[in-house]
Amino acid sequence: MIMVQEVQAPGPSERHDLDANDESASLLFDLSQRYGDTFRLTSQSRSNDSLVILNADDIRRVLQTNRGNYIKGIGIERVRVLLGNGLMASEGELWSRQRRLVQPAFHSQVIRSFSALMHQANVDLIDRWSGHAARGEPVNLTHDLSELALNIVLRALFGTDLDRLIDAKGCNPFDLLTSETRRDLPFAAKFRALTHHVLNMIAARRQEQRIEMDLLSTLMEVRDRDTGEAMPDRALLDELMTLIVAGHETTASALNWTWYLLSQNPQVEARLHSAIAEPASAPGPAEASSATAPYVEQVLQEALRLYPPGWLFTRRALADDVLGGFHVPAGTDVFICPYMLHRQTTHWDQPEVFDPLRFEPAAVDARHRFAYLPFSAGPRYCIGATFAMAEMTMHLAMVADRFQLRYDGTVPPAAEFQVNLRSRHDLHMRLVAR
Ligand code: HEM
């Protein structure tokens, strides 16, 4: 007699290697139609199988209740080449020590102290866009949002040292992140070459005994509560490089999709305009995201549902487990796909419809907690989620107050399923002043 936990999940007989790319995305969509919530793929090139899980209870088991059995899975080696052993890629003791040390830097009070710089970055953007609006010229939304998000995360990290660097070099060396879109090995090499600028900033602060109100100083000053030790330089550098990339691309692409969705849904846009017209909703430089109307946040949450930048992530089982009633041998790479999860009819009525009211508190309470994972869940939940929401609500409320954005393309933008879920081509928008 076969025990239920020894039954293998169904899956195709052909071999496939899943990865964060377009081919894997179409394969996943196709296989979920054929095999349902849990399916297995035999690898072409590796000895371990892959398991795709779409059931919210199973996802909870992997990310939360049985999390000790799961480490980051396939693809993490490539992330490590780009980001080093920072929070995104580290494991075990190193990860828990670093998470403990970095977490206070993302406390909501610290994030509130970045409101002024977030506000200023949007004031500058609106000034530039006003010129475009007056001349009737479209803007390259994708490019401009990439620049905005990069500028905000770099200023939160390095404060005015960023201006010193730009003055010294005559340009911002980190612009590489917006000018180059590929995230391959040559890009990783160029990005890692930027570490010397960060090391110079650290050295200058030490020499001048200068403490600033930014993340760099916060991370330099933090002490391990058990040992009293500061973060070693290598770890500090890896965390900073991680935060630059993790804090830039995700936010930029979330906003890119948000504006596209708004341009296609005039009723949602009109409701957003009324929400931000309420007197208490105008975000000032000193205000946190909580000051803006709840609907602004709901619009963003709904955009993150349809287009979660982290559309696919992986874990690897350390020991045998059972998921969806199927046997999961040790070493299996488990794939969690928020993009598909967020469109499941089990949790979402008419999933293709853009409806921010799905995030009214009562609706959220009624839903499975693991049906919505734009920032993942469990202990490896995105450390920058509050930062990102503060930045995005501020941007959306300020810009929607000034302009309507009209999509300038003739066909709907195609999604590009890479490490992040981006638009395949830059989106251009016409601005209508309000
Ligand atoms: C809309 C914006 C963002 C989205 C959708 C997003 C999404 C995610 C997701 C899905 C993960 C988990 C990945 C996994 O477990 O494999 C993650 C982790 C992480 N994110 Fe974000 N993120 C965003 C913004 C940010 C920002 C602004 C920062 C920092 C400034 C940041 C820093 C990180 C870091 C350091 C981790 C690793 C945390 C750990 O493992 O301890 N993210 N993010």
What does this structure look like?
The protein has 434 residues and is α+β, with helices and mostly antiparallel strands. The protein has one domain (4-433): Cytochrome p450, CATH 1.10.630. Helices cover 49% and strands 10% of the residues. The chain is built from 18 helices and twelve strands. The strands form four sheets. It has a five-stranded mixed β-sheet with strand order 1-2-8-5-3. Helix 6 runs antiparallel to helix 7, helix 7 runs antiparallel to helix 13 and helix 13 (233-264) packs across helix 15. The protein is globular, with a radius of gyration of 22 Å. It starts with 21 loop residues before the first helix and ends with a strand. The model has no long low-confidence stretch (mean pLDDT 93). Bound molecules: protoporphyrin IX containing FE (HEM). Protoporphyrin IX containing FE (HEM) is lined by residues 87-88, 99, 153, 242-243, 246-247, 250-251, 254, 309-310, 313, 374-376, 380, 382-384, 387-388.
